[in-house]
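The data are quoted verbatim here:
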Amino acid sequence: MVNKTLTYWGPSFEEDVININVGGLRRRLSSSALSKFPNTRLGRLLSCDSEESILQLCDDYDVSAREFYFDRNPGFFLYVLHFYQTGKLHVMEELCVFSFCQEIEYWGINEFFLDSCCSYRYHERKLESRHHNWDEESEVSSVDTSPDEISDINHDLLRYSTLRCGSVRKRLWLTMENPGYSIPSKLFSFVSISVVLVSIATMCIHSMPEYQEVDENGNVLDEPILHKLEYFCISWFTFEVSSRLLLSPSPRKFFKHPLNLIDIVSVLPFYFTLVVDLTVGSDSELGNLGKVVQVFRLMRIFRVLKLARHSTGLRSLGATLKHSYREVGILLLYLAVGVSVFSGVAYTAEKEEDVGFDTIPACWWWGTVSMTTVGYGDVVPVTVAGKLAASGCILGGILVVALPITIIFNKFSHFYRKQKALEAAVRNSGKKDAEDVESVSSHDRDSEALSESSMGRGSPDRRGLTPGSHHTP
């Protein structure tokens, strides 16, 4: 197609017309129309003086026929022709804004040639697309991507292939880790949640005086039924943590996972207090150490965090708080500034009224309660200036608290979808393994059937009949 004998243009070329072929759409353009826009791709063809410069602008050409070939969208080329005829460019509705930008950039047409009827709509669509992409990039850049975590899960599952009884251990681990993996995993999750709720209820009931018993020395004793329930719950929690540790594909990762650390912390206070009671004595005999033991007993309240293992929403909330530390820090900074400013104003207005605004640090409590819109009412201003300061404090608190809420909510939605994707990936991995096992067994059955049929076809040879021989009576 390329005519290599003509490598430069003749002097009379600009007075003629050239043929443009775009994706099979062939049109004729005059050189005078192209020369009006010398910076465009077709306009620069007029200044080409060698074959190399021509091939930099088009895909192929024939100088003898003065025809140039472009492998581009033929529908959009009609808009290009209209531009060379009128000097105005119109938007092609069939193309998205980015494809339209790529096309006009290829043909060397600037955006300011857009006609007034299309210019506003084009820039509005372009601005919306940029905002949308910025939102997605900001979400993705602030968190780890789900495909990376899915690949980590698959990598951990592959470790079971090198372990003894790896297939059984893998199924048991998935049953305990993913509540939606199978029906047994749902039953295990239900039992675990029930035990956590029973443990929390037992601890709450034990704090009520009517369910407490006192010995001769005035020490509070556990009610027998509650004491047995506590031992049962601790036994279940210990079994759960031990099983997860034994079935885990990587013990190192096990101790780094926050949910596993919560499980360990939920059972350690019981064993610590049990060891202290057996070796040293009761709380009354320990003095200051007894108070430490009581603090460890209060740490049983952390068992409620075990529910996060069985709740996608709680796990998403934890991940949101972890990755929203910047937004939370900004919120605390705004609150601190507001509390400091309005506390000083309230102190100046109310210090002579003896209503609780005696010092600025004392006003910090009032400022914190007011800016967070809690409003206990234990300390209230009585002067007009103090009430105006309180009104500004409350309104400022509403605005300050509302600012980062949208960002945090968007991140929560992102992490919730991410957790759902991870759970689906774990379930699909289990189904895939089952399908692989079934396919291997069916392949073995087909191989056995094929071998039996081949043996059946080979029996005539053993009778002395070979292919091609004839049996005569």
The first strand starts at residue 17 and ends at 22. The beta strands are 17-22, 25-30, 60-62, 67-70, 213-214, 220-221.
